[in-house]
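Our preliminary data section would be incomplete without showing what the modeling component actually yields. Below, a chain of 333 amino acids is followed by its predicted structure, encoded as tokens that our downstream tools consume directly.
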Amino acid sequence: IAETCVAAIAKAEYEKLVAKWGEPTVAGGPRTGERSRPAILALGKLGGHELNYHSDLDLVFLYEADGPTFHGPRARRNATTTTNQHFYSELGQRIVKICTRLGPYGKLYEVDLRLRPTGKSGALATTFDEFARYFAEGAGQLWERQALTKARVAIAPQDIVETLSEIVARAAYDHPWQSANAEAIRDMRRRMEENAPANNIKRGPGGIVDIEFIVQMLQLKHGRQNAAIRSPNTLAALSLLHQHGYLNSEDYEYFTTSYRLLRTVESRLRLMQAPTRVLPDDPIELTKLAGALGYADGAELQAECRRYLRRNRERFDVLIAAEAQTLSEFVAG
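Predicted structure:
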């Protein structure tokens, strides 16, 4: 539904901008004068087909190449033109504005663009080549490549999906794994939980993010050599990592069960108290949540969640330490 909404908005606003500025075209090279077409990457939960109630949309706006816009022969005499970057940045702004506009029934979605190259300081829309160059030349940081493990081409002309998918895969995986990355991932995880209460089942210690970070760490380590494990969906990635021998059976079965449980609790929480991910302290609210999930009472639900959160963190620490140990042994040697 989210992709259908974004695609419909993008199509309508694109046509309006073409009427205003003309069609974006390619400047230079064998495709000079041809259309420079747009694409939208989905990351995060949207990228993984894992949207929950009140999930925001992590998007990256791209277009094929720089150049000017061009009006057809039927355009008015004083029609104005602009650059492709201006055109597609304006398109991105319009998509965000419409998605986040508050109407009589609320808003469609919150949109997060912080995962684009260079983050908030970067251009709203980027060419394929600029996107590829940013990561190939070393500007892309570990956390950005980690985010790209959940990226997929959501909206684009069919004939460029494969090419763009390869660009995204190289950006994420075409970097040799270093054991120091495990330490960096652990540090990122600690920073995320600094301002999260302990009973936050996503960002708190042992929360959903622990499982996601383990999956992404193993994908970054092994995905360069083995493209088969490059799934943006966490549960699918867990299964693939197990099938290819990168995650043992016990961890695979445990993380799969834990992830399903915590995501289910999260969805019920967000229906009751959007947009929270924090288990309620209020006994009445906790009892309501327990009932919605089929538990006898709030105490039973709370105990089970705490047990999984604690074990998630234990396993997270063990798996991270196993990677970091390789670095320690190298330094000691």
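The two ends are 54 Å apart (CA to CA). The CA atoms of residues 231 and 237 lie 5 Å apart. Preliminary results of this kind motivate Aim 1 of the renewal.
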